[in-house]
């Protein structure tokens, strides 16, 4: 595959998709959700962005109907995004630190199913955060393999911070090592006179697993995005990309090691 794959995003106009007389999404104001079409090479992913529980629940119900009937393990790609800690409501001080720090609180998650649909759910920003029950019910299914980089740590943080139980998290690099060999995924590097073993990042995993697919490095302005603040199209596009790649890499590896999908 020559060169990097191109990416783009377009926002869809508000429409209702009816199935058996039931709208796909709640037919209220467009401010409750946004739908974007993200193109990654020749693949098209519909991404729904919302911070409302009932939209998430309807999205999961709609998508879930298409995957429960499939044989073999269900697969979901998961990417989490962090933000700065919120100061107490009475404090005038601005939070400090780096949003990308692994110890920063989770502010958003992207979930990809089927390689064609993605949900981007954001913390609603209120101090009395409530667990999105629909997500909890969906991710607590042990038949659902939730794949991602560092996903086991992310699952622990989601349980502690959001009250969400991820029943079957599967580390993407471990899965890729089983499918393609340890030496292909874990690389030795000399750092300050010491040999350090480091696993491939998401972009390099995509190149290894997805037939040489080349995806560009995420810009620093996106890496350091505070996901507790408003998102722009670029942020949604890269969040979709991360969840999509996790799904595609995980699915390809499961097929290679002999799981029925």
TrEMBL record:
InterPro entries: 3-5_Exonuclease_domain, RNaseH-like_sf, RNaseH_sf. Residues 1-21 are annotated as: Disordered. One of its GO terms (molecular function) is 3'-5' exonuclease activity. One of its GO terms (cellular component) is cytoplasm. This is Putative Werner Syndrome-like exonuclease. It comes from Cocos nucifera (Coconut palm). Residues 1-10 have a biased composition (Basic and acidic residues). Keywords: Exonuclease, Hydrolase, Nuclease. Coiled coil: none annotated.
């Amino acid at each position: 595959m020559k060169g990097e794959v191109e990416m783009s995003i377009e926002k869809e106009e508000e429409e209702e998709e009816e199935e058996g007389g039931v709208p796909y999404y709640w037919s209220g104001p467009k401010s409750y959700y946004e739908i974007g079409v993200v193109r990654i090479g020749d693949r098209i992913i519909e991404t729904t962005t919302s911070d409302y529980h009932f939209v998430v629940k309807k999205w999961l119900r709609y998508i879930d109907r298409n995957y429960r009937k499939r044989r073999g393990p269900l697969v979901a790609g998961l990417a989490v995004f962090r933000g700065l800690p919120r100061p107490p409501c009475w404090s005038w001080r601005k939070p400090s630190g780096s949003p990308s720090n692994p110890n920063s609180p989770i502010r958003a998650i992207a979930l990809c199913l089927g390689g064609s649909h993605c949900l981007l759910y954001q913390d609603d920003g209120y101090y009395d955060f409530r667990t999105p029950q629909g997500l909890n019910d969906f991710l607590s299914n042990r038949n659902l393999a939730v794949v991602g980089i560092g996903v086991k740590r992310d699952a622990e943080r989601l349980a502690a911070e959001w009250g969400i139980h991820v029943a079957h998290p599967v580390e993407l690099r471990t899965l890729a090592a089983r499918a393609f060999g340890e030496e292909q995924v874990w690389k030795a590097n000399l750092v300050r006179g010491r040999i350090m073993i480091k696993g491939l990042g998401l972009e390099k995993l995509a190149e290894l697993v997805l037939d040489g697919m080349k995806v560009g490095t995420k810009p620093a302005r996106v890496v350091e995005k505070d996901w507790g603040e408003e998102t722009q199209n670029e942020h949604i596009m890269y969040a979709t990309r991360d969840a999509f790649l996790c799904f595609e890499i995980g699915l390809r590896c499961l097929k290679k090691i002999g799981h029925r999908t």
